[in-house]
Structures are given as structure tokens and as C-alpha cells.
Amino acid sequence: MDPATDGEVAAWVASLGLPGLVDIHVHFLPDAMQRKVWEYFDDAERNYGMAWPIQYRASEADRLATLRHLGVVAFAPLVYPHKPGMARWLTEWVLDFAARTPDAVPTATLYPEPEVADYLDAALRAGARCVKAHVQVGAYDPRSELLAPAWGMLAEAGVPVVVHCGHGPLPGDFTGLDVFGEVLRAHPRLTAVLAHAGMPELDVALDLAEQYERVYLDTTMVGVPFTERLTPLPADWTARLAGVGDRVVLGTDFPSIPYPYATQLAAIAGWAHDDRLGEPFLRAVLHDTPARLLAL
Ligand SMILES: [Zn+2]
């Protein structure tokens, strides 16, 4: 039975024979910044044209307890800057967070600025195993010359970068998978995880995954009723997923989601009802593939 509530998640995960969930797309931020993000979502009707009631607005300790209760055994806490001069200290903050949180994988972030190679190199040396790039919030061009050394460094290190480069929930100056596709053309060995499976361009994200063997899709907000209204899955979604089934990874956007965590899992479980996917697909998405990507 697919999980209908958060209370059912841990037993469902165990029934699949998994030791737990590995979530590659979770957000933790310094408290003051987290409050500002939630204030933005509280104004979502004006910002996005729809209400966005945050499901897990709680203290950091309570949010960590919730993840553990759900059976999340490891997660990538992702941070991202919206202007220059932020990425270094955010990276330092999240590395410190991961150092004091055993189930958090050390991560880093980046921004097109002259010092990016310096702080990214330091973060990789400090053990960062995942990087977040937010093209929409950062409003930068991922093809920027300033970022070329960073993409090269990540390709060389084999460290995955979770990239929000799609037009959802709002288009940005440089969003669009065609734009990030140019980065992949220049850095074909980059391990890139297309956040939200590239929403709303799910079909183009699948094209890129078929074209580049190191391109992955994360499930964040994909196929849940909240987004299905605006971005319905393509009719051939599960058929095409079968072709790249070992490059789909669990992501959720916890805690700032407008529905329970179980809703995302139920959506993924629904895809697995297609016989071409089934339980092997679930085990890969929910645990094995993200565990491999995050070098657990
Ligand atoms: Zn996110």
C-alpha cells in the first residue's frame, strides 16, 4: 500500500526492504534566513499566484526529528545565495551544520563571482559531497565565464550539483533547460541533478538524461497534486522514466512544501505501478541511487 500519511512512511519503506530514505533535496538555513524564506512563501499568493502553506514550520531540532521519524537516514541540506558575496558564508554555515548533524551530508553552493573557485575548492577539501546551484533565485547566467572553473572542478571531482534551472515556479532571466543544456555541452562529464526534473520542461529533462549519462532527475514536487494542476506529467512519463530509472533520485524540498512528505512518496509510488518500473525502481529512487550519488 502506498503511504497516505507521514505516519505510514517508515513502515512502507521497511516493507520495500530498505534501510531508510535518502533525500537529495532538503533545505536547512540559518534561522533568520529560514524565517525570511517562510515569510516569502506566506506571501505566495502575491509572489506565485497561489497559496503555499508551509507544512513543516518548526524549529531546526523539530525538523530534524521529523525527518528521522519519516525514516530519512541521510539527506543533502541545500543552501543557495540570491546575490554576490553570500555563497562563501552560506557554504561555511552548511558545512558546520553537517558537521553537527550526523545524517546531513556536507554540501556547498556557488554564485558567479571571482572567488567562486576559491571557496568551492575549500568546500570540496572540507568534504562537501553535493552542491546546490539555484539559477532562478540567483538570477544568474549558468554559462557565465566566472562559473566555468567551478563546473570543471565539480566534473573533475565527480561531485553532484543539484541545479534548479527550470522555469518553475516562476521563469527567471536565465532559467530554461536549453540554457543549462549549453553548460552540459561545455562540461559533458558534469554530474548534474536537474532539480524538480526540470519542471515544467520534464520532457526536455528526460532528453538531457538520455543524452548525458551523468545527468540525473530529482523528484522534488514532481507529480504531486499541488503541481499537477499547473504542470501535468507527460503521458509517456513512466515509459520514459524506465529508460533512465537508475538516474532518478528522491528529492522533496522539505520543509517548505505545501503538503505532507508522504504526498511526494505516494506520487513516486504511483509511477512504480507501471510494471516497467515496479519495486526495483522504488528501491533505486528512494535509497540506492541517491546513496551512491552522495557517496554514503
Ligand atoms: Zn529546493
What brief labels describe this structure?
single chain, 296 residues, alpha/beta, two-stranded parallel ribbon, globular, binds zinc ion
Instruction: Name the structural class.
Output: alpha/beta
Strand content: 5-15%
What is the 3D shape?
Answer: globular
Q: Summarize the main sheet.
A: 6 strands, parallel
Residue-averaged pLDDT? 95
Count of beta strands: 8
Oligomer: single chain
What is the overall number of helices? 14
- N-end to C-end Cα span: 28 Å
> What is the rounded Rg?
18 Å
Distinct small molecules bound, one entry per kind = zinc ion
Helix content: 40-55%
Query: What spatial order of strands do you see in the largest sheet?
Result: 3-4-5-6-7-8
The ordered H/E elements are: HEHHHEHEHEHHEHEHEHHEHH
Question: Uncertain runs with pLDDT below 50, 5 residues or more?
Answer: none
Pfam families: Amidohydro_2
Protein name: Amidohydrolase
Organism: Actinokineospora xionganensis
Domain Amidohydrolase-related: 22-295
How would you sum up this structure, described in words?
The protein is of the alpha/beta class. 44% of the residues lie in helices and 12% in strands. It has 14 helices and eight strands. It has helices at 9-15, 31-42, 44-47, 60-70, 87-99, 116-125, 135-138, 148-157, 177-186, 202-211, 225-228, 237-243, 261-271, 278-293, and strands spanning 21-27, 72-78, 107-109, 130-134, 161-164, 192-194, 215-218, 248-249. The strands form two sheets. A six-stranded parallel beta sheet has the order 3-4-5-6-7-8. Helix 6 packs parallel to helix 8 (148-157) and helix 10 runs parallel beside helix 12. The chain is globular. The mean pLDDT is 95. Bound molecules: zinc ion. Zinc ion (ZN) binds at residues 25, 27, 220, 253. Keywords: Lyase. It holds the Pfam family Amidohydro_2. Residues 22-295 form the Amidohydrolase-related domain. This is Amidohydrolase. It comes from Actinokineospora xionganensis.
